[in-house]
Design goal:
The chain is of the alpha/beta class and about 375 residues long. It folds into two domains: about 210 residues; about 140 residues, 3-Layer(aba) Sandwich (Glutaredoxin). A five-stranded mixed sheet has the order 3-2-1-4-5. β2, α12 and β3 form a beta-alpha-beta unit. α2 runs antiparallel to α5 and α2 crosses α7. The two termini are about 45 Å apart.
Length: about 375
């Protein structure tokens, strides 16, 4: 049994005991006032801490990379639109809003975690928490039954769980929330209503700022396969036991013409632009000058994109891109780096550095990353 399963079992035990004790004390007092439920009060406090901790972790790993969570929301929207064509207009409306919606959900979950722990406006907080859990329980239940979405994205790329595990997790959390929901009107804020409100609001602002910073640069913590230090030769083949990264799925760039770069030897700067139509104009405009500097530092520049060849040729001509361009699956490219375009430095197949186009490295920074 893994750590995640052990934690899940512990939460289930707390939920069962709290529900049992609440039922027993309620049968004697006929009241949901915590003043008449001493044992329940202590167990609800424990539940609040546990729920808050899990909500905070879940929100943090998504806020760290809300673009990735947005991709998962897009997958859900497309799945629902396909499953229920008569509702397609509704899901199609939300699809282009997936990224800002992912940002809000991530930040909201962190603020909700703080609100639960400090007891801020518990009547409102309990309702919001219960509605959110019911919604996600239905969502993960649908995924588990149909197998249409294989990963809910509940914990971003930090923790991958099977659909049925995710569904069971949501049932356990909903069960833990039920006692808190029933006694919500008698939960007092700590250390006081004003400070609890300030802490909740501050958590929303800080989490929102952190998430936006990760979007404008790169996730502060990289949970994906293509992170700095990973050897592509290893992660694209057989992952060794105990590795802290998953398999690099769908790796396989293709090139037109006779020349095909060897990514497993030499020094390469990969420019990753999963969709050139959506790429930053400023990011693309800077590429020729940067590529010239890389060439002077003995680094070969190669671009990978999933755009069609004609569209790619037009961009190459427009921006006078002086390097080889290859083609690869868009999902894999979006996984490699959360920037469009983004920079990935390789030395003999080992990832030495990754940068957002807002932080595009010059030759001096590339040499520093290479330890020169």
């Amino acid at each position: 049994m893994g750590m995640y399963q052990i934690i899940g079992l512990s939460y289930a035990v707390v939920a069962a005991i709290t529900l049992g004790v609440l039922g027993w004390e309620w049968s004697k007092s006929k009241s949901f006032d915590l003043a008449n439920l001493p044992l329940t009060g202590n167990l609800v406090l424990l539940s609040r801490i546990l729920i808050g901790a899990l909500f905070f972790y879940s929100g943090f790993v998504k806020a760290n990379d809300y673009i990735g969570f947005g991709y998962k929301l897009e997958e859900y929207f497309l799945t629902f639109a396909s499953a229920w064509p008569w509702t397609a207009w509704f899901w199609n409306f939300w699809e282009p809003l997936a990224a800002p919606l992912a940002w809000f959900i991530s930040v909201f979950e962190i603020a909700l975690a703080v609100a639960i722990i400090v007891g801020w406006r518990m009547n409102l907080t309990a309702w919001l928490s219960m509605l959110m859990m019911v919604f996600f329980t239905v969502l993960t239940g649908y995924s588990a039954v149909t197998g249409s979405v294989t990963d809910c994205g509940c914990f971003g790329d930090a923790l991958k769980i099977e659909p049925w595990e995710s569904f069971v997790k949501d049932i356990i959390l909903t069960s833990m929330l039920l006692p808190l929901f029933l006694v919500r009107k008698s939960v007092k804020p700590f250390p006081g209503a004003r400070i609890a409100g300030i802490l909740t609001a501050a958590s929303f602002v800080i989490a929102g700022g952190y998430s936006y910073w990760c979007h404008e640069h790169l996730p502060a913590i990289d949970y994906r396969a293509y992170k700095v230090g990973v050897d592509l030769d290893v992660c694209t083949s057989e992952i060794p036991a105990g590795a802290d990264f998953p398999k690099c799925k769908d790796w396989g760039p293709g090139f037109m013409g006779d020349y095909e770069p060897d990514f497993f030897s030499g020094t390469k700067m990969m420019i990753v632009a999963y969709d050139l139509k959506k790429s930053s104009d400023d990011g693309l405009s800077a590429l020729p000058g940067l590529a010239q500097g890389y060439h002077g530092a003995g680094v070969e520049t190669v671009m990978l994109t999933s755009s069609l060849p004609d569209a790619t040729a037009a961009v190459v001509e427009k921006y006078h891109l002086p390097f080889t361009v290859g083609f690869m699956d868009g999902t894999a490219l979006k996984t490699i780096v959360r920037s469009n375009p983004g920079y990935v430095l390789l030395e003999n197949g080992i990832i030495k550095g990754k940068w957002h186009y807002n932080d595009a490295p010059d030759a001096a920074e590339v040499n520093k990353a290479l330890g020169r």
